[in-house]
Amino acid sequence: MRAHVYWTNYDSGTIGRANLDGSNVNPNFITDAGAPHGVSIYGEHIYWAAAGPLVARANIDGSGVNLNFITGANFSYGIAVDG
Hints:
Elements: E1 4-9, E2 14-19, E3 26-30, E4 36-42, E5 45-50, E6 54-59, E7 66-71
């Protein structure tokens, strides 16, 4: 499995991904991500703060988006995962 860099695109509601060498840029790796702020990876999941009271999660391949993974986070903006 290749290592990647991920970023949020707040205005378009997407999460982007590229290889660490800057190749294979996909600005729409995850679509319908709400209004994402911050992103974190742990194991087989990607997590992000979704402006408002939400923390969202998806599988590392971009499937299985769950915008309501954690509710009530009260205007979440950044995120960190402590595995």
